[in-house]
Q: What sequence folds into this?
């Protein structure tokens, strides 16, 4: 849950090329070596055609730096907002943005900590040091205070909708990692008429006893949900997944809540607990969610 005794991320290993990563990912989901090479080649080719640019987004509190991705061409394509984990906007999340855009989406990955620092500054912080943790937790507190998550979500979705490549006739998606899980739920609560799919990967604090608990927003939304739970988070709070299942059922929201065979941070390449096979299985579930819900 992104607390002090878990290091959810480390810098990506520069010795692992994107091609090697693609081969390993394909193999991890049970393909033969030849199939894995073909899939990796196709993925690399699609990502090479993705348009990537740094952008700024005007918010109620200032200006957020962010990265925007979309396929080459006019489109239009459905929009997706990606909330990073506590490590913020950094190369591994840019790679996720490219990969997702290559599948046919207009993707925005913001610097969630823009109130406190630019993404270029947060990348230099190490969660593995007391100083780095203190700074990052301070940035997170500034982000989650009061109405900030809802105001930011509205600004980011409005920015996506203003892009000429965005298909505004189709619902948008939102996904979040670690602290981004609750932010994904809050995004659906902030703009329920626009969000058709919500995905949380090892999200912390989805169900709390607070009156503002993210799960209480579910009945107000129109989205389908994917909640991928880390096994050690589930061990700490096994009741949370049951609360979520009950909430989705009572609200009549289609949802999948599953505990994966990976620890907190397992979906993020470069994390010390990155589990490639389970990460790819989670990505496949995300792909299916968006295909079925973003209509």
A:
């Amino acid at each position: 849950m992104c607390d002090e005794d878990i290091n959810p991320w480390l810098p990506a290993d520069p010795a692992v090329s994107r091609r090697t990563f693609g081969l390993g990912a394909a193999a991890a989901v049970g393909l033969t070596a030849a199939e894995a090479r073909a899939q990796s080649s196709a993925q690399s080719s699609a990502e090479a055609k993705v348009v990537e640019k740094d952008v700024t987004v005007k918010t109620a509190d200032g200006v957020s730096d962010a990265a925007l991705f979309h396929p080459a061409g006019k489109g239009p394509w459905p929009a997706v907002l990606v909330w990073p984990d506590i490590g913020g906007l950094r190369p591994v999340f840019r790679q996720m943005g490219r990969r997702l855009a290559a599948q046919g989406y207009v993707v925005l990955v913001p610097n969630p900590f823009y109130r406190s620092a630019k993404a270029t500054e947060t990348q230099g912080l190490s969660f593995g040091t007391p100083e780095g943790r203190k700074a990052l937790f301070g940035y997170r507190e500034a982000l989650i205070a009061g109405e900030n998550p809802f105001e930011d979500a509205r600004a980011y979705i409005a920015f996506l909708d203003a892009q000429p490549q965005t298909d505004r006739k189709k619902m948008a998606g939102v996904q979040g990692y670690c602290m981004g899980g609750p932010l994904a739920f809050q995004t659906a609560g902030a703009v329920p008429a626009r969000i058709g799919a919500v995905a949380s990967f090892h999200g912390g604090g989805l169900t709390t006893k607070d009156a503002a608990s993210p799960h209480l927003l579910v009945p107000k939304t129109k989205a389908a949900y994917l909640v991928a739970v880390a096994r050690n988070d589930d061990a700490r709070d096994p009741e949370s997944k049951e609360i979520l299942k009950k909430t989705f059922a009572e609200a009549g929201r289609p949802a999948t809540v599953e505990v994966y065979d990976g620890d907190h941070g397992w979906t993020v390449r470069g994390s010390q607990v990155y589990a490639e096979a389970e990460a790819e299985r989670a990505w496949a579930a995300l792909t299916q969610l968006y295909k079925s819900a973003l209509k």
About this structure: The chain has a mean pLDDT of 89. The two ends are 32 Å apart (CA to CA).
